[in-house]
Amino acid sequence: MEDELRDAIRKLCERYPEEYWQSLDRERAYPVEFVGALNDAGYLACMIPEEFGGPGLGIREAATILEEINRSGGNGAACHAQMYTMGTLLRHGSEEQKRRWLPDIASGETRLQAFAVTEPDAGSDTTKISTFAEKRGDRYVVSGKKTFISRVQHSELMVLLARTTRLEDVERKTHGLSVFLVDLREAGDRIRVSPLDTMINHETNEVFFDELEIPEDNLIGEEGKGFHHILSGMNAERILLASESVGDALYFVDRSTKYAGERVIFGRPIGQNQGVQFPIARAYIHAQAAAALRDRAVELYEAEEPCGAEANMCKLLASEAAWEAANAAMDTFGGYGLAEEYGIERKFREARLYLIAPIANNLILSYVGQHVLGMPRSF
Ligand SMILES: Cc1cc2nc3c(=O)[nH]c(=O)nc-3n(C[C@H](O)[C@H](O)[C@H](O)COP(=O)(O)OP(=O)(O)OC[C@H]3O[C@@H](n4cnc5c(N)ncnc54)[C@H](O)[C@@H]3O)c2cc1C
Q1: Protein residue with least CA distance to atom 51, ligand 1
Q2: Whose CA is nearest to atom 21 of ligand 1?
Q3: Residue range 157-204, pLDDT digits in tens
Q4: Ligand 1: nearest atom to the Cα of 116
Q5: Prediction pTM value
Q6: Minimal CA–CA distance to 132: which of 144, 116, 119, 122?
């Protein structure tokens, strides 16, 4: 089953070769055709249960899909949110909410690609967010500002984390946050979206909320418990982004191995030199280790057991393996690593993101130091 899925994704990705991603990168354009093809084939809805019109696959298959997209040279970031936001919706949404939204997402009519957490004044310290949803009758009225919110312009729905009780009024800083599903089609001028230019081609934005009204039915789970509800989504996000990084690492290893075997300098293939071979081999080993830990995180996630440690650790390992492989590829390709037409420099820029997003690796180290190893809290 897994091999068949990998083959099918590889075949689909072959229709979108390096030139496709390069021209998008140059134009800073969204991969509409590629995402459309994934949607039509049902891959984006893979985690939606059959009773709601989806294929009823799990995070394991989602991880395989994203890994293969990135290994093929593509970029799963254009569409991964529809998979990782499912964790929050499936585990904490009501039956009525699932019936209302999931069939349209499964059919591809509605896209759920935006996940709005980060704020300029809170950054990694999520509990400091100040976007506020005030209850007024049967609605919540939201005001505030988010930053780096990706794919908003290619999504009808957005999962939003906002405060419903101010930080100064809660007993614990993780209390008083709530999760909403926002229908962007109904937002009118109450939401303003301002695109952010970044080093990579990643549709990301500042988003301003000005008294946006959300029906109370769009609250997911319990009011005030949003931080906990969103954690299952965040664990899924870490596992899936680790899979993209594993895919990136293997992309660089594949490309470097091939090039090192073909490029002849000093009368022999450069790959014959252990100085060229070893960094590629080392990155490959680290990518395999990351994939093994990712598989463990997947098992725990599927069993609905705590998987925060494994999800975080595999994200750190995978992002570092990808970055190591990216540097090995740059060295292997020499000057051609920097030449646009080879594609290495594009993937090099893209692989760099996951050392800092969706959670900076320092924060993972601090999580493991405090929560896994029991060392003193630093914040
Ligand atoms: C292209 C892109 C797309 C994104 N898409 C989304 C999205 O769709 N939705 C969303 O909500 N967010 C998104 N983000 C935001 C991303 O999740 C944040 O950038 C990330 O969480 C880090 O937050 P920050 O940039 O504010 O860094 P900061 O929190 O300001 O941290 C800056 C640096 O300081 C370090 N640091 C901070 N505190 C500590 C500490 N206590 N100990 C050690 N080191 C520390 C961090 O490791 C980091 O390296 C995106 C970001 C990018 C760049």
Answers
A1: 148
A2: 359
A3: 999 999 999 999 999 999 999 999 999 999 999 999 999 999 999 999
A4: 11
A5: 0.97
A6: 144
